[in-house]
Structures are given as structure tokens and as C-alpha cells.
Amino acid sequence: MQVAVVGGGVIGLSVAWAAARAGFSVSVHDLGSPHAGSRVAGGMLAPVAEAWHGEETVTAQGVEALSRWPDFAAALGVELFNKGTITVGTSPGDLADLRRIVGLFNNSEVELLNNRAIRQLEPSLGPAVRGGMFVPGDLAVDNRQLLSALRKACVEAGVTFDSTVDGRVVVIAAGAWSGSLHPALKDVIRPVKGEILRLSWRPGTLPPPTHTIRGSVSGRSVYLVPRKDGVVVGATQYEAGFDTDVTVAGVRDLLRDAETVLPGIAEYALTEAAVGFRAGSPDNVPVVRWLEPGVIAATGHHRNGLLLAPHTAALVVELLKGGSS
To answer: Which of 234, 247, 278, 320 is most open to solvent, judged by the fewest CB atoms within 10 Å of its CB?
Structure first.
């Protein structure tokens, strides 16, 4: 069977690679937008740290996907950052939210830590931090290294990259742009704008944190994902269509909250400010199903595209083989 995958982000490439390894003839069609969500992503693989009431389905999918990541990364030759995630709060309301998240899991590994204990894990946290939650099993990945490795693996598996969409089955995996590609997705998939910053370490400044840090600063969310040469700081979230401008307010808010959590980053260099578009769905649950004979959707992953990539790829291969998802 010939399979044409529309979309060359992490979902599209993961689907293409998995389908080629399963014996299908696969081509990828991608316009290569610099605002694709997986290119701009921070790289957190943290279903527990990002869990929330009302999103139990997404959390369950994320936990299952996380279990696939060590083998997935090893097959691609991609390094995983495996120090876990620290989620911190700066106000009583933030800590109350963390307690509710801990309550979602009957798991002794998810701990709510006081001020002193959280600083033993990450001494460079700011004085405004009042406590936090540590999830040792969470991972992170360099998203751009991942995309390069996936494309290389696709080529080695026989996947072709073509400007013409031609296949017995078409898989729509174009992220936020998927809504314009099929009537069934028109009112389901929408772009959710997010701004993200990359900060580079400079000689004489404090080193990047040893853990991924997700902060709640008076109810506002910010995350800092370590890289070898600095940190990725994200991310804002707007319902603004395909607005590609990085706003002054967005940069200001991210830097203010990130510096509150980790003051040392004030001496880093701001090397990139970018906009990416998440593929939002009405309930934040991905759409992975047949839309009609010959057309499969694999989209709507919102902020969990990287995390759910191996899980989604397995589901699409199951559909291609005639199974039900």
C-alpha cells in the first residue's frame, strides 16, 4: 500500500518512519514552515508534571507514550535528558494546584516537596519559590536534534520526500494547518499560538539547571528546559490564529516569570524568540482516526506532539493494517 503523509513535523515523520518499517511504501509532503510546533517546541516529555484535572485522557496517553520513548530514542540515536522534572510554585495558590496534581496519581514517586527539599535538588531556584513537586520519571529531548534524526531515519527506511501528494491512503499530520485540509477537521483543529525563547549560557554565569523546571508564578505557567549551551524558556498561549509576530508582552512575561523561578538566567544571552503553532482540538485530545476511506487524521496534539509521537505512530500503523483505534 502506498501511504502519503502530509506534514513533516514530529508526528508526520514518526508516522512515516513507523509505516515504512511496517512494510508500507511511504512518501512525505511538507511545506517546511518555520512556525511548525515541533520545530519551536521546548522538548518536555512530562505527562505527569503537565497533568491537569479534566485532561485525564491526554495524561493517560502521555504516560503510555512516555514508556515508549527510551526505545524510540535509542532506535533514532537521540539523547534523552533523564534528570526528571521539578514543578515549583511561588504562591499559596500555586502550591494548592500542585497538591491537586499529586492527588491525580497514586504514585509514591510523585512527591510534594517543601522549600528546603526542593532547593537540595536545584540550589539555583529563586527566593520566591515556596515548594514544588518532583517527578523523576519525566524526560526531555532536543526537539531539533529529534527532527533531524527522524528525517534521516525516514530516508534510510525508504521514505521519499515529494511535492506531490500521491497515495492510496493519505495521512493528514500537518499540525495546526490540518484544519484546512479536510472538511471533517475544519471546525475541529485550530492554531494555538505560542512564543518561546532560547537563552545561551555565557562565561562567568551560573550553569543551566540540572533538571527541567516547570514553574507556576501566581497562576502563570513557565518552563525552562536545559540544553547543553543554555535553556529553552516557554511558552505563551494565545488564541490568535496564524499571527507570526513575537510580541513585546510575550517576551516580557516569559523572561519575568523565568527569572523569578531561576534568577541566574538574567545574565544569559537572549539568542532566539520564535512563534510556533500548536494544533488545538476542542478537548485537547488528539484526533487519530479514519476520516473517510483513504484518509486518516493524526493531528490535534496541542502541547503534547513530541510526547505522543511514538504513541500516535503506532496507532496509525494499526489503522493502516486494518485495526481499530
So the answer is: 247
